[in-house]
Each structure stands twice: as structure tokens, then as C-alpha cells.
Design goal:
Blueprint lengths: L3 E2 L5 E2 L6 H12 L5 E4 L11 E4 L3 H14 L4 E4 L6 E3 L19 E3 L3 H9 L6 E8 L4 H11 L3 E6 L11 E2 L1 E5 L2 E4 L3 E2 H18 L9
Parallel strand pairs: 3-4, 5-8, 8-9
Antiparallel strand pairs: 1-2, 6-7, 9-11, 10-13, 11-12
Helix pairs in contact: 1-5
The structure holds cytidine-5'-triphosphate.
């Protein structure tokens, strides 16, 4: 998740546990990749040998992702993060906000869509391969296909978080891989197994493109 701070006590967050992202990082590491993990607040332990940057807000995540992009020749970027779509217009208050009897209206503005920015930055190039996620409460396929085109990415992992066995907090997920020339509906599996299926699909991109399998994720 990312957290958008309102004041030193409160924030706007979401229910993401970070488990899917950590599973992808661990799986890529096991396969021999050099892995850079950018993570929002989570209690999960970073798997050994992974270079991790801990951030809090969407803006910090954007900065960390683009710093790594500039320093490393990345082969693959997987955006599992549940990035806040909105942040507070006024930013974080320096001191705690106190209540009174009137209504409180908080104004929000859009954050940068990191995945879309990566898609625009890559333009017509083939690499890095870009993977995004799409979490919906209901059938997600149309929106995922639209997201694939709109954000200019290679693969969207679409999941219906209201489905049994899917969602933020559990160890399993039910997802459909959506790519330019097809879909692959996957049965329920652990997040680690889903990470394997995602990276298998990503590796196909490299094989089809005549390159060796990715080293930097
Ligand atoms: N994402 C991002 N930067 C943001 C918001 C989302 O990079 N500011 C990425 C997420 O990491 C994920 C994908 O974009 O890979 C999710 O796309 P998004 O359009 O935010 O999905 P939903 O929130 O499911 O869509 P909607 O707001 O249309 O319901």
C-alpha cells in the first residue's frame, strides 16, 4: 500500500498487505534476477539478497521507482502496489488537526499514475516489460483490457477481490492474465504460485523477442 498523511496522526491508506509484491520479488530472486523492491508500509520481511527501498506515499514511490529506472537497466517492472489514486491537496499538516462541531471537508487531488508514466516513458520500445495489476469488486476483464491499452503495458493481472480466495489479505489469489493477444484465466493459487505464472508469462515475452531471460526486475 501507500499512505497519504493528513496530519502527524492520520492517513489515507488501503487494505493491501504487500504480500503479492513480496512474492513476485522473492520468485524473481529465486530465478536468479537482481531484484529492486520498492515497498510501502508493511510488516513483511524483505527476502534475503533483495535491494529494498521503503517509502510511504505515492509521490515517494514515484520518486523511488524513477530513481531506480535511471540507475539500472531494468528488464521488467511489476507494479503490484496499491498506489493511492488521490492525496490531500493541502499536504500533511505540521500539527495534529483538532475537531470542532462543523463538517470537515477534505480536498483530494490525483496522484501521478506511475504505471502509465512508465508506459509513456517506454514509448514504442519493447523493454522493460511492464506488468500492472487491476483489482475490482466484480468481473474485471473489460476494465483490465482497457487498462492494458490505456497504460501502454504488456500484461495486466486482473483479479476480482470479492471472489473467494482472492484479495488483499489472504495467501491466495484468483486472477486472469490479460495481454495483447489473449487472456489466461488462472485457477486459485498461492500468491507465490501466481508470481510464478506471471514471471513465466513475462519470460515468454523475452523468448518471443529473441532475448535471453530477464536479469533485472
Ligand atoms: N498504479 C500506479 N500509480 C497509481 C495508481 C495505480 O502505478 N497512482 C498502478 C498499480 O500499481 C496497478 C495499476 O496501476 O498496477 C492499477 O491501475 P488502476 O487504474 O489504479 O486500477 P484500479 O484502481 O483498479 O482502477 P480504477 O481506479 O479505475 O478502479
Amino acid at each position: 500500500p501507500t499512505y497519504e498523511d493528513l496530519d502527524p496522526v492520520r492517513y489515507l491508506g488501503n487494505r493491501s498487505s504487500g504480500r503479492m509484491g513480496f512474492a513476485v520479488a522473492a520468485e524473481a530472486k529465486t530465478r536468479g534476477a537482481d531484484v529492486h523492491l520498492v515497498t510501502g508500509p508493511t510488516t513483511l520481511e524483505v527476502p534475503p539478497g533483495i535491494d529494498a527501498v521503503r517509502i510511504r506515499s505515492a509521490a515517494e514511490m514515484e520518486h523511488a521507482v524513477f530513481s531506480i529506472m535511471q540507475e539500472q537497466d531494468l528488464d521488467v517492472v511489476v507494479m503490484t502496489a496499491a498506489v493511492a489514486d488521490y492525496t490531500f491537496v493541502e499536504g500533511c499538516a505540521a500539527t495534529k488537526l483538532h475537531k470542532d462541531d462543523s463538517e470537515l471537508v477534505l480536498r483530494l487531488r490525483r496522484t501521478t499514475d506511475i504505471l502509465s508514466s512508465l508506459g509513456s516513458w517506454r514509448g514504442d520500445a519493447k523493454y522493460p516489460v511492464l506488468v500492472g495489476f487491476s483489482a475490482e469488486t466484480g468481473p474485471a476483464l473489460d476494465r483490465a483490457q482497457d487498462k492494458l491499452k490505456r497504460k501502454g503495458v504488456d500484461l495486466i493481472v486482473a483479479n476480482d477481490i470479492s471472489e473467494r480466495g482472492a484479495g488483499f489479505d489472504g495467501d491466495t489469489n484468483v486472477a486472469t492474465l490479460v495481454f495483447e493477444d489473449g487472456i489466461d484465466p488462472l485457477s486459485i493459487r498461492t500468491k507465490r504460485e501466481l508470481a510464478r505464472s506471471i514471471l513465466d508469462r513475462v519470460c515468454l515475452k523475452f523468448v518471443d523477442g529473441g532475448r535471453s531471460v530477464p536479469r533485472h526486475v
